[in-house]
Structure formats: structure tokens, C-alpha cells
Fold these 2 entries.
Entry 1:
Amino acid sequence: MAKRIEIFDSTLRDGAQARGINYSLSDKIYMLGLLDSLGIDYIEAGNPASNPKERLFFEQAVRVSLKNAKLVAFGSTRRKNTDVKVDAGVKSLMDAGTDVVAVFGKAWDLHATDVIGTTLEENLCMIYDTVRYLKESGREVIFDAEHYFDGFKANSGYALDVVRTACRAGAGTIALCDTNGGTMPRELEEAIKAAMEAADVKWGIHVHNDSELAVANTILAVQLGTVHVQGTLLGYGERCGNARLSSIIPGLQLKLGYDCIGDHIKDLYHVAREAAEITNLPFDETLPYVGRNAFAHKGGMHIDGLCKAEGSFEHIEPSLVGNSREYLLSEVAGKSAMATKLEDEFPEVAKDKKKVGALMERLKDLENEGYSFEGAESSFRIFVMKELGLHKSKFSLVHFKVSDEPTHENTFGAYAVVKVNVNGENRMAAAEGNGPVNALDKALREALGQFFPELKSVTLTDYKVRVLDTNAATGAKVRVVIESSDGENYWHNMGVSTDVIEASLFALIDSIDHLLLCKKD
Amino acid sequence: MAKRIEIFDSTLRDGAQARGINYSLSDKIYMLGLLDSLGIDYIEAGNPASNPKERLFFEQAVRVSLKNAKLVAFGSTRRKNTDVKVDAGVKSLMDAGTDVVAVFGKAWDLHATDVIGTTLEENLCMIYDTVRYLKESGREVIFDAEHYFDGFKANSGYALDVVRTACRAGAGTIALCDTNGGTMPRELEEAIKAAMEAADVKWGIHVHNDSELAVANTILAVQLGTVHVQGTLLGYGERCGNARLSSIIPGLQLKLGYDCIGDHIKDLYHVAREAAEITNLPFDETLPYVGRNAFAHKGGMHIDGLCKAEGSFEHIEPSLVGNSREYLLSEVAGKSAMATKLEDEFPEVAKDKKKVGALMERLKDLENEGYSFEGAESSFRIFVMKELGLHKSKFSLVHFKVSDEPTHENTFGAYAVVKVNVNGENRMAAAEGNGPVNALDKALREALGQFFPELKSVTLTDYKVRVLDTNAATGAKVRVVIESSDGENYWHNMGVSTDVIEASLFALIDSIDHLLLCKKD
């Protein structure tokens, strides 16, 4: 049977220390349920001593019934020269009411003397007293040996004393921390082995990604016998972030035969996206396993290879983590890419080599003109339908005009007028915007929204401009790619022109076309 | 003396296989010079067999004089059952005219039989013939043993035969490739040791990041004796990307005592940013070493610790890579960076701490509004002059109006009218363009050209649009960066607005300002 590794997620605590992340109370409650649904063992959700919002959160969180996870409150050891029973921080930790607490103490002599400003002996007492007190109060105690690896390098005897002290005081788990994220794998190995010889306890690992080694160091620690892995699902955390669990869990479970979250691993792709959504950060699509690019192939030889031998250009089967394979169409891709791409939506066409060849030729012409369908799936679909004579738009644009000049108030200088035709009926609309494209988008929705109310629920969620052949500078062609959403689905469209407004207009029209044609299905 | 490790960058070849990356010819030439300035040893810049654009690029690139780097053309071994002397791909590789070529061949039996569809023997012949022929033609040959690690797992004997064959044929360097990026460090170690026993050659490593282990695996390979490191500066590449040199170089050079790029390491931060700018991708600020967040501290305890003991919460001194420390709460950051920036052009100001501080505050405000002077040196200069009261523009823009609508002929829909004032005299001009920005640019030159004939020799050589805060889609701010040239010098300017036309206008005005102010000098 596979060896079980405990997963400890700190997205809501260490993750919240990342630049640009601020969770509301309801965000935190939502994230708690989400992480629980993934089969995470421990969810470290905050430091109740840090502010009143955190205390309020724990009041609510302890009442949430979790299926898989244990809720963890995080805090520091008692202050120097203070009775642990009256220490305010320790009291907050107790008051949080969780069954499990994570307590951090200094394992680097420099920190004890220069940052806390106490003696090495008192630092050990602070650790002993706090762990012992929490343990005797019935808590499961995870001790985070902060800066253990830097401490080991500076004064290995003292770092090991810290570990022994926490163990003797009753810590159930000791997590060795690379708080500054600078430890190289071979140093890490030596320091872990020394700790394992010094004390007998359940070992954990907690590393930061400042050297881009957090995943490797965590996996190495597990291979050395560590059974408790700390990190954050998407790697969020102070500076360069914490060890990314979305990369570690599949590595351990799919490659090395450990068991982390069992069958929940199939939900990894979707849970990762939802976590980013709650956090309100753009998703990094190049992320291993969970990024949209992780199994997206652009090179023609790679695509050809995959069609001939599955697994020839992929390290795992994408569906194991809930992801899927994608072939990007580009000037470096070939006919087999086109055929594969057509199979889902136009299976009869995919079988017709002549038609595939003709589409490929037409696509190459368009690419020479600057089109690139690789990030605009929906425009690709419309392109194929048009080429096959299957496309019937439900509206046409009769005229448009966009104007931009400073006004008296020097604001809202851009406005647009559009005239559309739907079933023989003309309709005009006008709108201002904080730029010409924004104005055009609004006017178009205004005019068409009278015929197609479903357009009102659609929002533009992304807008990208790429200048082609930059040598021609402002006379060059631009490619505009927009992302639209009705709240549930996302689709991508593209337009190309020397005129950024016209290119945007083409993409907007394709996007509306997409919605109206999908609705019909 | 530190052991020297060769750095081989493939941003322009493997990097171009990443989703969303499309380099123009001038982008590639610019990137070539940029990477050379960082002290990179080899720059793999494309596959001349893939398309005519690539051939054209090599025609120009071989004429660029490089200070540190060797230009490398990339290609495949000859086709099966073909004489190497008439093979089209090998001929393209020769025609590229570079002193160094990188050739890849299959080291995984499955690929030889199922993807190429040949025998294991013929695959070895393809490798031998190609390496030998290129070597005898006077080229330095780097052999990429594609899929070496997967091949070693499947059929170690054959993978080692591939390596021996390339060595016997005269390859100067053999790079062992983890093409699918799925290899775990311990498997990597075993396979590298076996290769090193099988052949005596200069060893290289080439890994992808699909398991988030590319940096760790590369460092491990070097520790095992590999002296040639392949990757891409910012990790761009197919799927999850290639090994990120911006993380590997400091790891090797600052942590482990190897020498990669010598003193150029101080330029890492700025070169990384400029490379992202050329690529027109947003910079990931959480990147180790080169991200703005890498030494940005948010946690109160961390900031407090750093103030008490330097290095207590940092794994390296940020200035070693040209980065700087930032405290997100107290905002005392960046002064030294600003002073460094001023030293070249405004040495007296650089010495005045108060002025530097005031400029820093103003710069922070602008950065919060979306300005970024990385990549727009000329606008930075104008910004400083304006803040110091040294800037006196030779013209002002009184009014402008841009209009865009289809015409009867359905072409040239965009036109612009501008009114400028020079020394109290107003002058109007109008122009059509193939887009609104092009029209505005022409009208502006027309109006001002009557006063300043030198404007007529200026052309816009690059135009880039970056959407900031993509969540707001078409209502979001954009940053426009333009490159101008008078045939001899190039300069870069920037504008920010929610309105792409207005942002372009700001950049155009700055660009003209730059020319007229420089002329005075």
C-alpha cells in the first residue's frame, strides 16, 4: 500500500502574506470548504493574535463541518520572560478553539539573540513552555522550527537543541522550515538527516521558493522520510511564495507512489482555478499540471509525435489531474494538428483529407496576414464554419463611427455610434467610454441587446493587443484577442487589422456571434 | 578559481514555442544583443529550416557582432534513408552560416520506431552522419539527446548507444534532454551518471519544467559534473517552459561557487525585464531573484527582523542581481536604485538625497497608476527633467481629434486633426492613416515638421501595447511603448491611459520632445 503523506495547506495564512492578496472573511470560509473538498489534511487558516478579523473568522470557522481536513490556528511561542499562562498570543491561540495548533519558534541563534533579543536558553524555554502548555490543554501541536536550515548552517548544535526541546515538550509534528527559501538540496539533505538522528517525532517540511527549489526540496524531504508536507495550493506566499502543493501532490502521488489526497487528485485542475478565483489573482497558465498550457502543444513535430504515439511528448496523462490536452494552431503546426482540432466539433470534416488540406492552406494564408488562432478557439470555430459555408450570423453591422477628442472637462473623450441590422430591422445606438474600444463595445451591446437580451449577462474579462511586424510601428497590423464570459463559460476571439479599433470590432463581433450561435445548440 | 559553467540560452528558439509568444525579426535581433550583453555563451536563435522568416533572420543575425556569445542555429538530424549531403534540413542548417549548430536526435527507442517510423539502427546512422558531416564542415556541434531521460528509463542500453554515437561522430557537447519535463531528481542522477560512464565528452543539460523541477534538476546535473547549461532566460518555452536561467545562474554563481556570467550578474534584474518587454509578456513579479516581490517584505515581523539583523529574512543581498529590497508597509524602498539610475545623466542630482527621495515618491505614485519606465529610458529622462523643472518643451498640443469610420471605398477610415503651438504660432494639420494612431502620428509630424524639419528623418520603429489590469478588459488602462529612430539612434517612450489613442499620443509627444531636446545638446 502506498505510504500516506499528510498535506498541510497555508493558503489562508502564509498565502495571505503575498503581495496583492487580501482575503475577506467570506473568502476565507469559502476557501476552507474548497480545500477540504480536495482532501487536504490540515488547513492553517490564520493567526488569531494578529487582528480582530482573524478572531472573528475562527469563531465562524470552528463551526464549519469539514469532511477531510482539520482546522489549524497559527501562532508564536510565548514572549520572552512571560508566564505562558498569561501570554496574550498563546491565549488567543487557545481561544481560537481549534483542535490543532501550529506554533513557530526560532531555530537560528541569530534570530533568538538579535531579532527577539533574548538568550539562547530563554528561547528554548519559550519553545518548551508553549508546546507543553498547549499539549497539556489537549491540543495537537505542530511545531514549526523557523529558519531551521539557516540555523543549522550557522550553529547546528543549537538548531538541533531547538528540535529536541520541541519534541520533549510533546510536539506531535515538527516541521523544519526554510523560511528564507535559500537552501540548496544537498544542504537540506544533510540538515534533515541530522534532525532525524537527534529526535524521534513525526517530521514535516515547510519551504519557500526564493531559489525556485521549493518543490524539489519538499520532494527530497519526503524521500528522506518526512511525512507531513506544508505549502500553499498555488504557491502563494511571502516574496516568491511557498512550496506549491499543486505541483508537489502530483509529483509525489503520480510519479513516486505516495498517497496524498487519493482520488481527489482528479479535481486538482478545477479546485486550483477556483482557488485563484477566490484570491482574485490571474491564473498562471504555465503552471505544471494545472495550467492550461501544461498539456498544450505548439511545435508541429510535438503534435505529430503525440498523434503517432501517445505519451511521446507528455509526462503524465492530463486527465489524471482533471486537465486536458490541447493542440495550438500556429505556423509551426501541421495538418495532423488541424485534423485533431476538428475532431471534437466537426468529426466528418476531420475525416476528409481534402477539406482538412484546404482549411490548412487557408489558415496559413491568414497566419501570413497576422492571424493566430492559438489563443482564440471560438474565432477558430467561426472561421471553420465560414469556410464550410455553415456560418449564418444573426446580425450585421451596417455602420459605425468612433470619435476621440478632449472635451471641455477633459474626460470621456471617446464615443461611438453603431447601426446594426437584425432580420431586416435597423437599430442605432451610441455610447461613451473611457477609450474608443470601450465605447464601441458598449454601443454594440446597447444596439444588439434590444434583440438579444442574453448579451446583457456577458462581460469582457480580458483584452490583449499584440502588434505584428513592429517594424511598421503605428502603421503595423495589430492582433486583438478578447476573452468573454457569461459567468459560467469563457470564450476567446480575435481580430486583425492595421486599425486597433477595427481589429477590436472584429473580435467583438465574433464574440457575440459565438454566444448567439451557441445558444441555438 | 571558480569552475566555469557555459550558459546556453534558447529564448529565441524553444522560448518561441511557448503559447502567446511570436517574435518579429527585429524583436529577435534586439534580443540577441540583449542576451549577449548579459555574458551568455551561446544564443540559440532559431531553426532555419522551419520557415522563410527564420532564414531571413539568420542572414541578418550572422552579421551582428557579438561581444560574448556565439550564435547557434538549431535543427534536426537528417531524414531517414536520405543522404546527409542532400538533406534539406541539414542544408538549411549549413546555409544559416553560424559557427555553432545544435542538432537534436532521438534517444528514446519509442520515438525512433513510432514517431520517426524507422529502425533503431537507422536512427543511430542519422545521428552519426549528421554530426559527422557538420563537424567535418567546420562547425562546432552541440548534440541534443532528445528524450534522453525517458529513453534511459525505457531502454537504457539504446539511450547510451545514442550518446556514444554522437560522441564518436565528433559532437563537442552532448546535452542530455528531459524533453517532457517529467523526470524526478533521483532518476536524473542515475541516468546522468550512466551517460558519464559511457562516453567522454563535454556534458550539457536541457530540462523542461513540467514537474516544477527544472531548476533543481539543472543544478543537480552541474553538481554531478555537467558544464553546459541550456535554458531560457525567463523560463519561456513549450508547455510549462524551459529551465529558467534567471533562477539557475544566481543559484550556481552566488550559492554554489561556480562562475556563469561573471560580473554581468549585476545586470540580471534589468536584462530580465527588458527581455519580457521585447517578448510583450507581463513580468511575473514573484520570480526568484528578478521579481519585484523577491525582496519585498510584507509581514511586520519580517520587516522588523530585517531592520534588526540584515539577512535575517533574505537569502541573498538583492543588489547582487541588481534588484532591491522593498518594504511593502513602510515604503522606504528603491532610493538606491533611483540614485543608480540618475548617476549617468544627472550626476549632481544623484548625490542630493532629498531630491532623490522626492523623485522616488513621485515615481511610486506614477507606478501605482500603471507607469513603468523599464524599457522607456527616454520617457524616464523627460520625467526627471520635468520634476526638476529643467524641461522646456518646444511645442504644445492645443487640440486633437481622431475619427474612425468606414468610408465609401471601405478603406482608410481613420483620420486625425491636430493643432500645435510653437513660439506662439498655431498650426493645424490633418492626415489619414491605416489606423487612428497612424493618422495621429502623421498629422503631428505634418504640423510640427513645418517648424522642425529634422522630424522628417524620424521613423517609428516599434510600437507595443500592454493592457494593465486585464480584469477590467476594454475599460482597463493600457501602456503604450514606442521606439523611434533617426537612422542612427534609437529611443523609447511611453504613455499610459485607459484610452489607447491618448496613451499613444503621450508617447509620440515624448518621442518628439526627446529629439528636439537632444538636438540642442
Entry 2:
Amino acid sequence: MNKRGFASDNNAGVHPRIMKALADANGGHCIAYGDDPYTAAAKEQFRKLFGECDVFFVFNGTGANVLSLQAMTQPFNAVICADTAHIHVDECGAPERFTGCKLLFNPTTDGKLRISDIKRHLHGIGFEHHAQPRVVSITQSTEMGTVYTVDEIREIAAFAYANGLLLHVDGARIANAVVYLGVSVKEMITDTGVDILSFGGAKNGMMYGEAVVILNPALAANFKYIRKQGMQLASKMRYISVQFDEYLKDGLWLENASHSNRMAQLLCQEVQALGVTVTQKVEANEVFAILPAQAIEALQREFFFYVWDESRCEVRWVCSWDTDEDDIERFAAILKKLLDN
Amino acid sequence: MNKRGFASDNNAGVHPRIMKALADANGGHCIAYGDDPYTAAAKEQFRKLFGECDVFFVFNGTGANVLSLQAMTQPFNAVICADTAHIHVDECGAPERFTGCKLLFNPTTDGKLRISDIKRHLHGIGFEHHAQPRVVSITQSTEMGTVYTVDEIREIAAFAYANGLLLHVDGARIANAVVYLGVSVKEMITDTGVDILSFGGAKNGMMYGEAVVILNPALAANFKYIRKQGMQLASKMRYISVQFDEYLKDGLWLENASHSNRMAQLLCQEVQALGVTVTQKVEANEVFAILPAQAIEALQREFFFYVWDESRCEVRWVCSWDTDEDDIERFAAILKKLLDN
Amino acid sequence: MNKRGFASDNNAGVHPRIMKALADANGGHCIAYGDDPYTAAAKEQFRKLFGECDVFFVFNGTGANVLSLQAMTQPFNAVICADTAHIHVDECGAPERFTGCKLLFNPTTDGKLRISDIKRHLHGIGFEHHAQPRVVSITQSTEMGTVYTVDEIREIAAFAYANGLLLHVDGARIANAVVYLGVSVKEMITDTGVDILSFGGAKNGMMYGEAVVILNPALAANFKYIRKQGMQLASKMRYISVQFDEYLKDGLWLENASHSNRMAQLLCQEVQALGVTVTQKVEANEVFAILPAQAIEALQREFFFYVWDESRCEVRWVCSWDTDEDDIERFAAILKKLLDN
Amino acid sequence: MNKRGFASDNNAGVHPRIMKALADANGGHCIAYGDDPYTAAAKEQFRKLFGECDVFFVFNGTGANVLSLQAMTQPFNAVICADTAHIHVDECGAPERFTGCKLLFNPTTDGKLRISDIKRHLHGIGFEHHAQPRVVSITQSTEMGTVYTVDEIREIAAFAYANGLLLHVDGARIANAVVYLGVSVKEMITDTGVDILSFGGAKNGMMYGEAVVILNPALAANFKYIRKQGMQLASKMRYISVQFDEYLKDGLWLENASHSNRMAQLLCQEVQALGVTVTQKVEANEVFAILPAQAIEALQREFFFYVWDESRCEVRWVCSWDTDEDDIERFAAILKKLLDN
């Protein structure tokens, strides 16, 4: 058995129910590329959650984000985002490469983009020498483990709309935000006016697969071509679809996120009890904290995790659907020993 | 249980041994993105088969082909291929879109590119008004179910090398060719001078995953960036890797291909016995044949398959790792009835 | 004084009236990038010729063609053209590179695309595995010196429209076609249903500059961004505009083309009188002919020109606005001597 | 005669000597696309100035910058620049669109990038999730009218080299910097270790045309294809080349820049004498200053110029090769009146 750590929810395995669903869907032939009953069923689950929408399954989060932006832009456009955004920091320039667009970004203290951050980038609209803003992209929950309230999203969507912009949400960890806010994903996404959502699965118990959920129907017409040309059309689609069906049909996605959020709360309490400074509000499944430099390395030998900001000894710990209380107790015990030295 | 047909080897399910390997790899945490023991083991399997090489796992065949070409070209280059090539016909223009290159192609009778087909496109070399040929891309086994001999590949590789070109092989069905020729993949690919091979898995019993096998080490240095920017880096990599490990480690890939080739032979014999004209040599797992127009539709109601060339009533039947003799007997029986009417 | 030849109308100089207009526009300051009175005047000339239209000046023909296609397509589209098209053969893959689109082309005998050539490429519409045809691009006059009739253009435009396609005309030598047919450019282009025309200037007496004439207003909205991002926005725009104003305002463009067409007719007669086979109808300013291999090189030492098809000793001669009868007499005399040997 | 203003050196006309050179080069035929004696002569002028180098003429500054970056990068690379850089602010996203690269930028106080600004962006090198820094791009003289010293450029080049980066200089106003520093362009560019320079002409008395000067020979091999595919190859090349020949051959470029620099000094003194705050060192041909809001509009009615930073009433005035002392006296007189009110 592989050891559990706090490096990333991508390091966790696949939930047993997902694994079983994969096995159950095996056997016999299905039409490839999505024209199969598993895909129809999974899409139906999305419509139950979001109301009317178009759904396209892709392989991974970078694919979901980049193709979403592609559907919303022309190459002379710009995308406005936080400087911590995955699309800006962690996708090796794929958004610029594939959409042709410029990314306009802002430093934020907590990973959350404000209206004022967006406004700064709008002065060049209509002036052909500047890339033309067309999309605001926010991450829910953010890369800093914080969560936009429903009102904040509604306000951003309204501001975007009023300024001729579209709103994209990178929801690689959307489940954690839904659970944290205790609202439905429809209230958070459909009803606030989001245009496209990248809906994550892999970080919360699936094996692979991400869904592009298009709430603005005008953006859906050509998406099948964008997906195929974007190298994100799975041949044996049923194996993505059946995962999403199982993930959504009776709340497994919320159960998993609920658990990882709770574990993050526990972890936060434990390390704060040890006098450790936690640098961000713990609203989803991540904890950011400052550790003494020498403790970091020693702790990493026991539990793998990443240093977030070397200059100030800030580290990131991520809880997963399979993190258990023992993991946290052991972690806290070891950390205590290191800090006591 | 889903019904089996002859539409595509992409329609078949996952081999039980692959399914079991996925389940066995589940549990606990693994470092994401490929720095895990499953990936190391799978790469080792590739090196056992090919000798020294660099291997990068990606999600699908289009991804493997496009990223391979990206690693071999600059945007002002051209890629020479057969007009039946998957990269030309079936990838929605992804190669042009992502590499920036022009595709130069030729009609062929059997899906196999000849030296003379390549030569036609070389006259503009050095002349800046023309896209500059840089890669020859062939498919093994071809989209027409035929197979290049080892000598043919060696000859193309030598010609390419002599003309400053690189050789890419789209091996979505490489296993079927290896089995047909009865040679090792090293003799067929490494020793002939192929530069990069797209090595397929999904069409022959895997769930998802394709490998880019780089034989020319000069092309490997930047591939990790190309893969990430190309949206083809899996987060939970272990689940691709463990499939490849199982697929390769004691010959499952050859077993499966051997079976589907044999089924195609059987199918060919059965339909020829009914007087049906088979239009291509059956060397891999595909049978191309001419049917009376009215028989096609009726037959499709029983067994799903595609019409290849409407204008001459040519159809394509593909056998899979899970096709069985009963499928073929039933198919032949129904076809017989339709032809007898 | 540089010697005149028959290699290309691009080799000719600038008409004295254009040169004088440039000098006259010099002095003092003008707002850069097109917001100046010269540009307004030149656009007005275009509207006089074409009726209501949007006009954008760019640097060169490749720029005009590529940006026109960019305005008409999304990256998953395809452009249908003749295999002799400049966009296919002579732009180093710029159309694919910048639009992301695939070019679908056909051999033709005379450079003219027929409805049947277009039809062949439409079978994949709606099927996401194939690049989606969106534009038909024809060249008027063609690269083979032939001219589409007004009826032929109208028929292609209607067919395109009926099939959801747009029509682009590469008019690098549009003036020669207008003169040949004896119709107005409005009858030929606006009234037939062309969507965008690349209107050439440099091959017919201008120094540099090409105009993108957008007849379909839906395609104009974003063109200013496409031009700027496409690196084709001139800072000192007045110097392109004043050329176009002079070129168009009282028929200089037709005079020049009329002359070069007439010279091509004369050249054709002279060489035919020597027994030389002319391989294409001479409708514009180009003559294609077969010469004995040994005569070609000797003739090239006296007059520079290009071999078109080495395999059959076909050469191309282009007449320019400044070709004179003496040039042709001298040329014919030398050719006669070479053929007599 | 068009009125002179202080909006941009792009608004000025063409120097009479350049105009005469254009007229002198007219007449007769020249091989198109650069294989002509004017181009050979102009390239020779560049080699006299820079020492051994490859030179490619293009149409405009955006073209020169984008193609230079294209020659230095692969799509997964990043380019580091100041946040005032023309490539970042004023090219409508063309660098991202055409190279595929991400731009990494920093705020600066004076348009000059420091080593510490570059360092901040290097932490992700070798980590595939991040775009890989490959080029540092600086502007000389900067968009803020300041000038890098030779030592500063040498230091940046050395730092770049030590970190596996290349150095690009956007020299749209390189002449103004050469004159200001009183060094040769060879000392400033070749000897410091610059890899590619965009050498401007249009802002300093030419009609159109920019030169890409490649000092690092490894970057030159494919540039002719990059230029053609990049839509920047002029057909009637002689008319760019002859301008450069005249511009360079006996110092016209330095004379013009010397004059515009001197006019900027004069303008600076005049407005400072009126109590106006000048916000940047005046080292080249630009003056940045703070004016009372109500004075700006009134002044713009007499002399066209741009507001640089609306939020603090900062304006930009640019002097040109044809600005004269009278212009400045009149300007200062009007400004005085406005300020006195």
C-alpha cells in the first residue's frame, strides 16, 4: 500500500465506488467517442445538478480550462485572472499557446479576484493596440484554499456581463466549495451567471476525467470540434462517463469533499494548537502555514508536501478524500516533536 | 452486457487483466504527474522492448501523434503522409493547428506511402515560399489494415535521413503489425531508424493511454514541456502506467493483437466464401469489402460497423481483442441470408 | 536602369504617378495607424468602386490573404482551394499557421476551382473528427493566367452560401481580370456575393500595400484587432493610403492592367508564331509555354523568368505595367534564334 | 502641409533624402523578395555598423519584434520584459499569439528592466508545469524615453547567458540611444552580447521598414522561413532596402536622432521653466510630464499628443526628426498661457 501524505489531492487514489463502477461498465462493445448510454446517463446527472446545460467530458483540468477559454475567445482577446490562477501559473503557457490570448493578472492576497482587479484591465477596450479583454476566469475553491461566496460570484458575473465579458470558473475543486458554502452548485454557478465551468473529478476521487459544463448555450455549438481538435476527445468515453455518473448520482462527490474539508479543519486546529501560523483561511481542503525552515525538510521526510513560498517558509498541505484522522494525528505528533527541538 | 460489433476496436472494452492491474494499483498516495514507481516500471518495459528510448505517456492517439510531430518540427515545416493518414483525416486539423505545419499528402491504393510519394514533395526545399518538409509520417499497421514490411520501413527511414527528414510512425495498431510480421518491435522500429513512434494501447485492450516512444534522443529533451503545454500530462499517472506495465510485461499486447488478427482472417475467409469482394489485403485486424447497397443497412441493424466509401459501397469491419468466433459465425450467417435474398 | 524581364510583375518598379503621390503626401505630421485624411480618401475610392464595404490596408498579399481567412474561420475549420492557390503553394504555410485551419485542395487543369471540386470536401460536415469546411478561396485572375467569368463566380458564391461556406477571392491580380472581362469590379465581386476580397496593388504599379475589402459586414467588426495582432498595421499609414487613392481615383489601376494584358497577348502571338506551344489560355498578364530544355537556360541568360514545371519544360512569363513592345520584340527575336539552332 | 505635433514620431513624414533615394531606385526590374543589389548594399551597411551579422528586412516594428522572438523560442518558453514593453502593451497580444510563449513582466519605474526583475521569474526552470524562460527582451531607448547604459546591457546579457537565456533588444528608437550615449551601435549591441536586435527605421525618418539584426549566428538559419510564414517578406524589397542604405550610409540615422533628442531637451527645459514637473529623465526624444487636467485638453486642441497616465495627469510628448525650434516655442507659449489662467 502506498503511503498517504499531504502533497496533493492528485496523489490520492480512486474511490472504491468509482473503481467498482469502472469494472461494472466493462465488457461488450459501446460506440466510441461518447455516443453511448453511459455518457447519456452522466450528462443527465449534470443536468439534474445544474439545470439545462451542455456537458463535454475531457481528460484533465488543463484541457478543461484551455478548451473552455478557447470556446469563449478569439485570439486577439485577453483573459483576466488572479496571479495564482492555475491557468496562469501551472499550465506551462497552454492557455496562451492554444487560444492565442494574453493573460492579464493581478496579485491577490487570498487567491480571490475582486471587481477592482478586473477594472484595471479594461481601459484598452476598443483600442486595437491592446489585447481585448473578453473573459474573467476565477477558481472556486481557489488555489489558496479559500472560497468565493455566492454573492461574490454573482457580483463578478454581473460586472463581467455589464462590460461585455464572459465568466469562466475553474472548478478543479468545486466540490469543496459547494460543501463549504452549503449551497447547491446550481445556486453557486448556474444562477449567478457563470458562462462555463471546468468541473473537476480527479482531485476528489475519480481516476481521470473532467467536465466542461457550458451554461451559456451560445458557447456550446462548436465545442465538439474544439474538443476533438484540442486532443481531448476520449475514444473509450464510457470509462470517463461511468465515473461521473457514479460520482454524482447520489452525492459521492459531496461526501468526498465534505470529508477532505473536515480533515483540513482538523489539521488546521492541530497545527495551530502547536503555535504554527496558518496564513490563509481554511475554507476548502488546503492549509497554508509558516514553519521554521529546519522543520520543513525533516517533516517532508515523513510526509510528502510542497513548499509554497520558499522566501517565507510557507508550506501547503492538502487533504484528500482518503486522508484519515490517524494521518493527521501522526503528522501533528511528528511536527510537535520537530518544533520542540 | 453490451453487444459486440465490428465498428471499431475502440468500441471494445478493457481486458480483464488490465482492469485487475488498475484495481491493484489503487489505494494510498503516489506522487502525481509520473514520478511514481508504476511509471518507472512501465518505462522499463518499453526499454526492454525497444532498447534505449525515452517514453512519455499521454491520454490518446491524437495527443500522441500531434505532440510527436510538435517535437520534430518548427511551424514552417511540412509533414508528408498518406491521404488516408489519421493525422490528415481524423484529427480535425489538430496537427496543423498545434504544430503550425502544413500536411503534404498523397493518394495511395493501400494506405502505404512509397518513396516516390515522398519525393514529389521535396522540390521546394530551401525555397522560403514553400513550407519545408521535415517529417515523414507513416501508420503501422495502416488505416487500410495493411502492414509495411521491415524492409519498407528501413528504406523509408534511410530515404528520410538522406533528405534531412525525420520519420514518425503512428502505431495506434502497432501490435497487430508486430504480430503479423512475426518480428520484434525493436527490429521493426528501433533498428530501422524510426525517430518517434506513437505506441497505441486503447485499441488493443487498454482503457486509455498512449505512449510516445522517442528513439532519437535529440528529440526528447523538451518533450516534457510539450506534453504539459499540450494538455496531455495526466495527474494520476499511475493509472496509465500500470496499464502499460500489465500490457507489456508478459506479452498481453501481442496475445490480444494475435487474436484480433486471427479473427480478421476468419472473417475474411467467411465473407469471401459468400462471394464478397475483399478490397484490401487482410494483414492486421481490419477487413474492407464491397457489399450490395441494400445489404449494408440491413446488416448494420444487427452489427454496428462503418461504411468506408459510400460511392462504391465499401465497408470496414474491425476485429477486436474480444471478438470471438461465434460473433463471426453469426455475422456470416446473417450476411449470407441477406445476400441470398 | 535595371533591365526588364518576364519573371514577375513583382519585379517591376513603381508607376511614376504613384511615386509622385507619395512625394506629394510627404511633409508635416499625420496621425499614425490610419486615422488620417489620406486613408479616408482612399477608402472612399474603394466605396465608389465596390459600393458599401469595409476596407483595411495591409502590407502585402500574404498578409491580406491570411488575415482575410482569419476573419472568416475558427481554427477547426477548413479552407477549400485549388492546388495552385497562392495560399496553398506560396505562403510557406502561413494560412495553416495563423488560422489553425486545414487547407483542402484539388488539382485543376487551369487554376480554376469548379463546384465539383468543392463538393468532394463537404462529406465530413458535422462530423467532429474532420476539419469543418468554412471558406472557399479562389484566385482572380488565377495563378495560371486564366480568369473566372462573372457567372462562374456567382455560381460558386451561391453554392458556397447554400452550403454554409463563405467565399474569399485572392485578387492579387484582380485588375487584370476586371480589364479582361470588361465588367466593373462591383459586378464581378460585390454583386456575385463574394464575402472578402484581397485587393492587390503591388503587382500592378504600387510600391507596397494591399487592401482587404470586406463585402460581408458581419466579418468586419473585429478586423482591426486581427490586423494589428497579425502584424499588418502600418504606422505611417498615409503612405499606403495615398498610393491606393492615386491608383484608383481615375483608373490608373485599369490602365496598368490593360497594358500588361495587352503585352501578354502580344507575347503569346509572337511565341506561337515561332511554333511554341502555349499551355494555358492567355486571359490576364501571364503566358505559360513549353520550350525545348536547352532553349530555356539560354533564354534565361537574357531575360530572367521562372520554369513552372520542370518535368515538362513548362515556363511562365509575366508581363508588367511597364513591359513595352520592344521588350517583346527583343525577346521573340532571341527566342527565335535559339529555336532555330 | 500637415501640421506638426508631439503625439508620436510615427506621425512625422519621410526625410527628403529617403524620399529621393526611393525615387532614384525606381525604374526597371529587380528580382523580388530581396535578391537584388539594393538589398545587398543595405545589408553591407549593417555589417559595417555591427560587424558580422545576419540582417532581414521586415515591414514594421511589431513584425520585427514578434519574428525575433519566434526565432529565439519554442512555444513552451517565456519571455521576460518590463511591463511598459511594446511587446507586452502595444502589440495586441501578437507575441503570445504567434510564438505561443507567455510574457513574464515586471513593473519598473523608468522602463528599464533590472537583473532583480529577471531573477524573480527563474524559479520554475526545469519544472514542466511552468512556461520556461528563454528570452529577456529590453527596449533601447525605452518606452519611457530613458536609455540603458552600455554597462547595463552588458550586465543583462551576461546574466542572461549565465542562465541559459537569450537577449533581445527592441530598438524601435535605437538611434536615439546611440546618439545619447555617444557610443557606436557595435559597442552597445554587438559587443555587449545581444542576440537579436529589432532595428527601427520608421520612427526616425523612413517611410516603412524595420531590420532584424541577428548577432547570434545560430539564430539565423531558419529566419527566412520565419519571415515568409510570418507575412513579413516584402515582394518589392528594393524599396525597403534602398531606404536603409540611404539611412545608414553616411549617418542620416544619427543626424535625425540627434536632432529629435535635442528638441526633446529643449522642450523639457521650456516646460520646466514654466514650473511643469517632468517625470522621467529625458535621455532620448520623449518628455513625460504632469499637467493640470484642464490644461491638457486645451493644449491638445492646438498640438496633438497623448495622455500617458490619466490617473495622474501624466502626458507624453515625442519629438521627431522634423520637429523644429519654432514648434517648441509656440508650444511653450500656448502652454504658458494655459497655465497662467
